[in-house]
Amino acid sequence: MEIWDQSIAVEEDLIKANEELANKNKEFFEKNNITTFEILGNIGSGKTSLIEALVSELKDKYKILVINGDLATSIDADRIKKYGVEAIQINTGKECHLDALTIKPALEKIKEKIDICLIEQVGNMICPADFPLGAKKRIVVFEVTNGPYIVQKHPVIFATTEIVLINKIDIAEYVGMDQKALNKLEADAKKINSRLQVIFTSAKTKQGIPELIKALEL
Ligand code: MG
Ligand code: ZN
Fold first, then answer.
1. What is the rounded distance in angstroms from the CA atom of residue 90 to the CA atom of residue 189?
2. Can you tell me whether residue 166 is helix, strand or coil?
3. Could you give the CA distance from residue 174 to residue 153 in angstroms, rounded to a whole number?
4. What spacing in Å lies between the alpha carbon of 112 and ligand 1's midpoint?
5. Which 8-state DSSP code applies to residue 124?
6. Is the pLDDT of residue 7 over 90?
7. What pTM did the predictor assign?
């Protein structure tokens, strides 16, 4: 019995400690006028592609920094750097999420004025929900190929985010997701969190990208 009590306490402590550090990050972002967004979602959902779409639209007007969390590779940061935008890769090793402390070394590397910081979380829809990083808004991405139950099966992440991107909308009809099925996903998300802004996107056709930029409230 005692073992269980202790493990629950440890998890609560970790989440609490992260919350305090996330608030410190938030203060840092606000003090330096850096508008920060966190992008969450499974591997393959299109997080990096959507960041690329945002970067290519916004880079002439704003100074952007991208922080990419990943277990092992620098594939994502290398993709962003091709746009002439600074990108810092954080490899978490065995850790399945970035927490508020792991992004600190990247923030310490900031030497010049940054307007927008985009942080790509490690790819999964479970634990990153519990570890906010101090961003102005959290954006969760999933793809139409994930099927009809993806929202209902991940309630925590939808409860802790502000924007939902239902991505790869250009292939929806080929994977049996008709308008009714898409509306259902949107309704499922809003049932969990009525404040959610739901946008149908395609990084490929750029559908929804202008709406997404509007939702960022830059
Ligand atoms: Mg990625
Ligand atoms: Zn994790």
1. 30
2. strand
3. 23
4. 25
5. B
6. no
7. 0.95
Closest by CA to 140, choosing from 104, 126, 173, is 126
Tokens of 205: 């056709």
Q: Which residues pair with 88 in a beta bridge?
A: 67
| Ligand that lies nearest to the alpha carbon of residue 89, given by its number in the listed order | 1
Nearest C-alpha neighbor of 69 from the set 149, 131, 123, 8: 123
Q: What count of Cα atoms within 13 Å lies in the side-chain half-sphere of residue 66?
A: 31
Residue percentage of the chain with pLDDT more than 90: 94
pLDDT of residue 9: 75
Nearest ligand, measured from the Cα of 11: 2
**Ligand 2 centroid, distance to 69 Cα (angstroms):** 11
Q: Which two tokens stand for residue 146?
A: 């994930």
Q: Cβ(45)–Cβ(141) under 8 Å?
A: yes
CA-based nearest residue to 50, from 76, 29, 75: 76
Q: How far is the CA of 44 from the centre of ligand 1 (A)?
A: 7
- State whether the Cα torsion 14-15-16-20 is positive or negative: positive
What is the C-alpha separation between 75 and 132, in angstroms, rounded?
23
Q: Measure the CA–CA gap between 135 and 37, rounded to whole angstroms.
A: 5
96 SS3 class: coil
Q: On the CB side of 191, how many CA atoms lie within 13 Å of its CA?
A: 11
